[in-house]
Amino acid sequence: MKKIIIMPMLLASFIVFSQEKIVTKSATITLEASVPSFQPVAGTNSNVTFVLNPATGEVASLALMKGFQFEMALMEEHFNENYMETDKYPKAIFRGQIEGFDIKNLTEDYKDYTIKGKLEVHGKSKDISADAKITRSGSRVTLISDFEINASDFNIPIPALIKYKLDNKVKIQIIAVLK
């Protein structure tokens, strides 16, 4: 008899205390490492998983490195084989916290936030801080973040032969529409 009463109470407590997360598997990351006067070096990955816990402001993102597409097939090949070594380091992971986040304060107008967390790329982890703009329309939350990283911070090799064509500062933009 005790088991009959305890089991529903236990399940109900899990439901009450579980935190509902909102997820998309179609967030977009664009990266650019272009140098003026040379061909643009930019890639886009539109199959990025992005998770937001609206109760806590915690975020997490996972991008498969082979998902980045470039204008030229040769750039994509060099990106995967020579720089990112995607067979050895297949993914980029970010885990962080949106500072001062409260989903109840979101409106259809973008609000500015700071996201702090740890980015893992090419087998290296680094703390980063990024500005973000976040809006909510109905049940849809949209997050846009722009920031820069240094390729050298993640031991991403840039050969001396092309150093003048490829910037060490990589501009990154994330757009996530969560429902």
Automatic annotation (TrEMBL):
Pfam family, one: YceI
InterPro entries assigned to the protein according to its UniProt record, in alphabetical order: Lipid/polyisoprenoid-bd_YceI, TTHA0802/YceI-like_sf
Source superkingdom: Bacteria
SUPFAM superfamilies (UniProt xref): YceI-like
Residues annotated as signal peptide: 1-18
Keyword Signal belongs to the record: yes
Assigned keywords, A-Z: Signal
Domain Lipid/polyisoprenoid-binding YceI-like: 20-179
Protein name: YceI family protein
